[in-house]
TrEMBL record:
One GO BP: response to toxic substance
Residues annotated as transmembrane: 7-25, 45-65, 85-106, 112-131, 164-182, 188-206
Entry annotated with the keyword Membrane: yes
Pfam families per record: DUF1648 (PF07853), SdpI (PF13630)
Transmembrane is among the record's keywords: yes
Keywords from the named record: Membrane, Transmembrane, Transmembrane helix
InterPro entries per record: DUF1648 (IPR012867), SdpI (IPR026272), SdpI/YhfL (IPR025962)
Name of the featured protein: DUF1648 domain-containing protein
Length: 215
């Protein structure tokens, strides 16, 4: 499918990066860091090098398959461009994580927590700009019992959530430059607060619009 061309290219690039770097990687690769930015988990290099592209392939298959079984599958046509961008951005994020861990394994001095927080913050900002465009469906978006039950609740919740995600992303970028423990705590507070506010808002919107025509 041509519309997923960029995602296929990113997956191919991920495989290529893993294959090129593999001979030079240490047998045990750092793959997990604690809240202080210290390595506390290792993987065998074959898993570390090729897990990201495998994950990207599995997720890509799911993203292509999900619209076909969604009861609201006709709605995907209404936000096809945003859906494609969403998939592409997710693949960019995983490619960034792979490049970062491989670089670290090769001895490049990288502040992992800084890069991850910046990446998540930018991801939130981009997703926030596209959330309001996502139409009613059962797989992508802010899926609570109330958004799924009422299309107007879905629309209002996603309009608000788009703004929340952008604000959260900006905060996450700012938090990225704090010391380790504050960075982790700040990220946790921002992400959980965003999810909680969006969930509560969906309940409020549902009770406001449950007797109103979805259109």
């Amino acid at each position: 499918m041509k519309k997923y061309g960029w995602s296929y290219l990113l997956i191919a690039l991920s495989v290529l990066i893993g294959a090129i770097a593999y001979p030079y990687l240490p047998d045990q690769m750092p793959m997990h860091w604690n809240i202080h930015g210290k390595v506390d988990g290792y993987w065998d290099k074959q898993y570390a090098a090729f897990f990201p592209p495998v994950l990207m392939i599995v997720l890509m298959a799911l993203f292509i398959f999900m619209p076909r079984i969604d009861p609201k599958k006709e709605n995907y046509k209404k936000f096809s461009g945003s859906y494609t961008i969403f998939i592409t951005i997710m693949n960019v994020f995983f490619l960034l994580l792979q490049s970062m861990t491989i670089s670290y394994g090769l001895g490049v001095n990288i502040d992992i927590s800084l890069v991850v927080n910046l990446g998540i913050g930018l991801l939130f900002i981009v997703l926030g700009n596209y959330l309001p465009r996502i139409k009613h469906n059962y797989f992508i978006g802010v899926r609570t019992p109330w958004t799924l039950a009422n299309e107007k609740t879905w629309r209002k919740t996603h309009q608000l959530s788009g703004k929340l995600f952008v604000m959260a992303g900006i905060l996450l970028v700012a938090i990225s430059f704090l010391p380790g423990i504050y960075k982790f705590t700040g990220m946790l507070v921002v992400v959980l607060s965003t999810v909680l506010i969006a969930t509560i808002a969906s309940y409020v919107f549902f009770n406001r619009y449950k007797n109103v025509d979805n259109n």
